[in-house]
User: Fold this.
Amino acid sequence: MEVTNDGLDYTVVVTVTKVGTITSVNNILYFFVTQSNIQQNWQGQTHLEHVNRLMVPDQNGSVIDFSGGDTQTVTLNFSMSASWPLEDCEFIAFLQNKDSGQGNQQGTNPYPLKKFVVYQTIKRGTIDLTPEFVASDTDVTTNEPVTFTNMTTGGYIGVPETYEWLFPGANPSTSVEENPTVAYTIDGSFDVTLIVNRGGQIDTLTKTAYITSNWPVGVNGKANFVNTLITPNPNHGEFTLELNPVNPVIADLTVTNTNGVVLYKENGLNINGKLVKHISLGNLSPGVYYLTIQNSDSKTVQKLLVK
Assistant:
């Protein structure tokens, strides 16, 4: 079933393919527009679901004649009412055997209803299933919580919905909650993926490099064990670095981009009193970089801006 529309004017193309033996000769394709979530007090109910709003082309349906081939296509044109919220509507099509002599439906005595076999039913939401989400913040501090809010719309109505989240770089790295909270444990830029299953209708959304996690500018771990001064900052990839330790320390120096790629590294720096270094990083693209001084239990991070 393919659906296109121009405003409230819709065209639906239903393709019916016979893949097995069908002996019936009177086969009818019925097409409905249904609406749910209708607020109505009726026989003890507060709302109504799957109410038939329209049959296209009409209540008689469309004849499907397989004598001309195993694949038949029906094109249906119709208009939706502006009073029907599209998010509450579904399109339903089914192929039914209307040959006589199929007996009566069970449990309909003393007023029996004739039985007509339905070969297959398909449906889709008027609005397609569209996964979406937002984060409480996309530029986050490492180890600080960030909450993701599911904003998925469309798809089947009145069916269970499940979620599978993928958070590389975060703890936890996966979740099945609707609106999970995680914390990124390392710095860098990270994709976020949401897989939505609404009643068997599944779709996936991945936002690339959606979250940027940064160590706090200053200290992570013990008190500020090395004070850093970068001059000039911003710069063009060449700068002077002044290191002033609180106490003598041996530490590693790295410069990384926002994806965590190491661009410069010196291991085992003996910082005993003020240490001044001139560093040239070559031709870097303008942007934000991170200069890190780290040993086994302390870490200082300074933003480095390249223009």
Remarks:
- The chain has three domains: 2-125, 133-214, 220-306.
- The chain has a mean pLDDT of 90.
- Residues 133-214 form a domain with the Immunoglobulin-like fold (CATH 2.60.40.10).
